[in-house]
Amino acid sequence: MTLTNATSTRRIRRLAERQTTDRDALFELLDGELVGHLAAVVDGAPVVVPMGYARDGEHVLVHGSTGGGFALRAASDRSTVAFAVTALDGLVYARSLFDSSMNYRSAVVYGVLEPVEAEATDAALLALSERLMPGRAAEVRPTTRKEASATRVLRLALDDVVMKQRAAGASEAPDDGEDHSTWAGVVPLTRTWGTPQASPLTPAQAPVPESVVALTTRPAPNRRLH
């Protein structure tokens, strides 16, 4: 499967060989991360805000308060936004600082934010919840109508995407003129969840819920160097 780039000018020019059009790689990136950065131009000035998100099929879902925010404004203005997600997989130690690098996967999605229809809001909020805190919705009280009405869910189609990645060791060659007795290689970066910490008002005898146990014991989503 390949990515769809509706705008032909959105092409990586520097190190263009690192661009990928593999849609499965895009989904792996989006499904493995929890935070993206939404960017828009507001009153002539750039605004970038980090926010949690979820991929729902061919869309990215984000949410915010109905009381305002630049995302809602961008949606109502039908202005183009950019949503960026990056995963750092490791640091690449070469034999010079100039040649040192990172192993990473990054994607930028361009498009117009669309409000999720009222009848689909509950399902969209559940999708966000299940992505960020899987299983938690079944353990807590239902969302009230007041809470739901104060929340707006927006979606961004995965139609115009540029993705770039690096997954390799340090650049080297037998005749590169470097001192090969100097160590070179990759330090992979992995993430793990810490020990759950109960809130001050949670009774000491309250068991850690299944959703938290599952979250803290499942493998991290990082992709190791091949």
UniProtKB/TrEMBL annotation:
Family matches, as Pfam families: Pyridox_ox_2
Protein name as catalogued: Nitroimidazol reductase NimA-like FMN-containing flavoprotein (Pyridoxamine 5'-phosphate oxidase superfamily)
Species for this entry: Agromyces ramosus
